[in-house]
Amino acid sequence: MVVALTDQFDGKPISVNIDSYDVQVSGARERMVSGQGRVGVEGSGASITFNYRTVYDVLSSNAGYPDITISRFGAREHSVPNDAALIGECLMRQDDPTALLQQLVAAGSALAPK
User: Fold this and answer.
1) Phi–psi pair at 22, nearest 5 degrees
2) Is the pLDDT of residue 109 over 70?
3) pTM of the entire structure?
4) Continuous segment of H or E residues that includes residue 80
5) How many helices (H) and strands (E) does the chain have?
6) Are residues 63 and 102 in the same domain?
């Protein structure tokens, strides 16, 4: 989980809390593990909610690479591209960061897997 989340935050140091989990039998030796957690990026002082899902093999005691979705907040929910370096660079070059973020949200919604 930590490796997958660190990848989402451009390798920055993070802290992870798993708040909930659910385990469902999905095969003779496989379990589908899903739930919700919070990730904090060092120095930000805030945490971001995420949902996760992975397959756990009970015989080998190994879990697959998790599918992680960064949660969306508020009434105006939107998908946002998970490329922190790109977003940071764009914000530094843009006179109107709000307009740029709206463009990125629109691009992320169009690119998001269905």
Assistant:
1) -140, 140
2) no
3) 0.57
4) none
5) 3, 5
6) no
Q: Same structural domain for residues 20 and 40?
A: yes
Domain that holds residue 89: 74-114
H helices within the chain, ranges in order?
Answer: 2-8, 84-93, 97-111
50 within 8 A of 68, measured Cβ to Cβ: yes
Query: What digits encode the pLDDT tens for the residues 70-89?
Result: 865 543 444 555 556 665 66
Domain shared by 21 and 47, yes or no: yes
Q: How many domains does the chain have?
A: 2
Same domain, 51 and 80: no
C-alpha 111, offset from chain centre: 15
Same domain? For 83 and 64 the reply is no
Residue with tokens 């269905």: 114
Residues 11-64 have pLDDT tens digits of 788 888 899 999 999 999 999 999 999 888 887 777 888 889 999 999 999 988
The size of the chain, in residues, is 114
